[in-house]
Design brief:
By secondary structure, the protein is α/β, with parallel strands linked by helices. The protein has a domain of about 200 residues: Rossmann fold, CATH 3.40.50. Helices cover about 35% and strands about 15% of the residues. It is built from ten helices and 13 strands. The protein has a seven-stranded parallel beta sheet with strand order 3-2-1-4-5-6-11, sandwiched between helices. Helix 1 links the parallel strand 1 and strand 2. Helix 3 packs parallel to helix 4 and helix 5 runs parallel beside helix 7. The longest helix is centred in the first third of the chain and has 22 residues. The chain binds uridine-5'-diphosphate.
Length: about 325
């Protein structure tokens, strides 16, 4: 039997990273999951520890990254990804997107591996074009609270393209829009775990601003499928991956109230600075190049996600919370 293809997944203990580890072990790869566990949780991948085809390295990728032997693919998913996290750890956020990415590109070059980096809709900032397609350059405030994440990710795209054009490295760039599903952190400040957590604790749901800002939520299984297809494609320019089904945050709160059957109501809090007004991916490129589009409706995906959160312990549910205000 030929040796298994080896893939390094950074951010392995995070929300997206853990789902990718699962998928690639199922696809017959040998997976090395790497994480420094600052925002990730070992519990997210513990169910894979018994597999011979899964290894976990506790490592900070802003330091030199060593992987013994052959390596065929790298998925770079290490980064804090919610505003509350990158406000708390701004320097690490900048370092993992810049120094961390540089180390992984160096590793990819040394091993002749193909690398896919997780970029984000945040590269479009508070967009002046709607929906956002890959040709749009964005509207980012570099010195605002989101600047540490947005600019790290923009640098990440730039250095990835430079390795592609200068070193002829095989690179892929996924621009990931809001994604949700099981294993999101309950207290990371993101709107979906925030609302579901509030409903489960019997608290009011906190809408920031007047709730007219929009987001478009993609279920994690759809996103993972898009990542796999992009990795196996031969397309080096950025590709948007997300669900174009756009909704206002007020409507979203209503959906969560209905889904959870909570007796609580929505209350209004100040809008955080530089919170994008609207966000919806134009996925024409992904459709054309990858033959990909999301399949899971929000109502289906939300049910699965709610069932996951319902199973959490009371201790997890009431763990220290974070609030913008
Ligand atoms: N949001 C909210 N209440 C919360 C948490 C977030 O109204 O308890 C809003 C937030 O201001 C933003 C939207 O929901 O407009 C999505 O926030 P999230 O942090 O999930 O993602 P991002 O802003 O990065 O898209």
């Amino acid at each position: 039997m030929p040796a298994k293809k080896k893939i390094l997944i950074t951010g392995a203990a995070g929300f997206l990273g853990s789902h990718l580890c699962e998928r690639f072990t199922k696809e017959g790869f040998h997976v090395i999951g790497m994480d420094n566990l600052i925002t990730g949780d070992r519990k997210n991948v513990e169910h894979l520890f018994h597999l011979e085809t899964f290894e976990f390295f506790h490592h900070d990728i802003t330091k030199f990254v060593h992987v013994p032997g052959d390596l065929h693919y790298i998925l770079h998913f290490a980064s804090p990804a919610s505003p509350i996290d990158y406000l708390k750890i701004p320097i690490q956020t900048l370092k993992v997107g810049s120094l961390g990415t540089h180390n992984l590109l160096g590793l990819a070059k040394a091993k002749n591996a193909r690398i896919l980096v997780a970029s984000t809709s945040e590269v479009y900032g508070d967009p002046l074009v709607h929906p956002q397609n890959e040709e749009y350059w964005g509207n980012v405030n570099p010195v605002g609270p989101r600047g540490v994440y947005d600019e790290a990710k923009r640098f990440q795209e730039a250095i990835t393209m430079a390795y592609h054009t200068y070193h002829k490295l095989e690179t892929r760039i996924a621009r990931i829009f809001n994604t949700y599903g099981p294993r999101m952190r309950l207290n990371d400040g993101r709107v979906l775990p925030a609302f579901i957590g509030q409903a489960l604790r019997g608290e009011d749901l906190t809408i920031f601003g007047d709730g007219s800002q929009t987001r478009s939520f993609c279920f994690v299984d759809d996103l993972v499928e898009g990542i796999c297809r992009l990795l196996m494609s031969d397309y080096a320019l950025p590709v948007n991956l997300g669900n174009p089904d756009e909704i206002t945050i007020s409507q979203f709160a209503e959906e969560i109230i209905k889904l959870t059957g909570t007796k609580q109501k929505a209350i209004y809090k100040p809008l955080p600075q530089d919170d994008p007004r609207q966000r919806q991916p134009d996925i024409s490129r992904a459709k054309k190049i990858l033959g990909w589009e999301p399949r899971v409706s929000r109502s289906e995906g939300l049910k699965i996600t709610y069932n996951y959160f319902k199973e959490l312990s009371r201790e997890d549910l009431f763990k220290k919370e974070h609030r913008f205000s």
